Amino acid sequence: MQFRRIVIKIGSTTLTAGTKRIAPARMIDLVRTICTLRQATSQVVVVSSGAIAAGRELLGFPELPKFIPAKQMLAAIGQPRLMAIYEQFFGIYNVNVAQVLLTRADLVDRRRFLNARNTLDALLSQKVVPIINENDTVATEEIKFGDNDNLSAHVANLIEADLLILLTDQDGLYSGDPRHNPDARLLKRIDTPDISKEIWMAAGGTRSGIGTGGMFTKLQAADMARRGGTTVVIASGDDADNILRIAKNEALGTWFTPVVDQLEARKRYILAAGLTSGEVAIDVGAELALKKGGSLLPVGVVGSHGNFDRGDPIKVVSNNGLTIAVGLSNYSARDLGQVAGQHSEEIEGILGYTYGDEVIHRNNLVMIENSR
Questions:
Q1: Bridge pairing between strands 254-256 and 43-48
Q2: Do 236 and 346 reside in the same domain of the chain?
Q3: Which residue ranges of the chain lie beneath pLDDT 50?
Q4: 344 three-class SS
Q5: How many domains does the chain have?
Q6: pTM more than 0.85
Q7: Which domain holds residue 98?
Q8: From residue 58, how far is each of 14, 52, 82 by CA, in Å?
Q9: How many CA atoms lie within 13 A of 284 on its CB side?
Q10: I want to staple 298 with a disulfide (CB 3.0 to 4.6 A). Which of 266, 308, 328, 339 is the partner?
């Protein structure tokens, strides 16, 4: 399969099969399909709703006021139950899962962003399936994603996924509301960089009272993820095998092609970071290595200036004083002061820990020509 890393967003309506209760038969079908996909060498991350639905079911569907603390209470009750079901069903296939709860603040703060990305990378390297949900028990309006559609797009950008599958209760995105417009047609592919106003208008509204999102939020998520270099598909979750068919490039649902490739998206992110927090001076050998497409290693660093943290954008200055690159530092200014000029294998012995062999990885570095 061409897709190496896949994010699958599963909404409450899919998990409940359109009812008020979590549907075990539907969930085990989804789990079986995801495990089959993993065997085809794909890394899979699941963004799953359903905690509030599971909590409401566990309490016997009480009548509660429609305010945030009640929803947070339901999420707190339902999230362990939801994870227990996932753990049980994935365990049938000897696959381990991990719970990851995120808020918007985790992805806005640069260090927390890096920590989240590194955690997910570590889980995937150990062949664990991360099950991600918004941390509803602590989220407020200021730090909420608003819905798991948008959360899944953020996750896709976070881990640089090749494919994001948004499962819904419709076959895809239509030119109008198919419930009311018999002439509405399925939009099979959107290749234009900008999504037309007519399509945004057609995506308005929500079909179910169970989930918090609708087709509009899925369109928002698709637009966000494709601008990060991810292919996105909106498709029906009624048949779990649709996941495998999409991963095999079948023309199913609505496909959104990436606006840029992932490397270009990352470079744009680095350049859009604004003011740099500091700079590192490098020797001639390191400069030649960077110009050949290599990473910046500590052995090539001869000095640093500024008070920067891990993950901050910094300038890379050559031996003759030219700024030749901007990149995201794997180490803080304090740490770099201790490992500058040293070989990569010595980092852990000096610091007591390591964030990798590189001061700046080549994928996190943008070369700049003729700048000072």
A1: unpaired
A2: no
A3: 142-143, 205-212, 371-372
A4: helix
A5: 2
A6: no
A7: 5-260
A8: 18, 10, 11
A9: 1
A10: 339
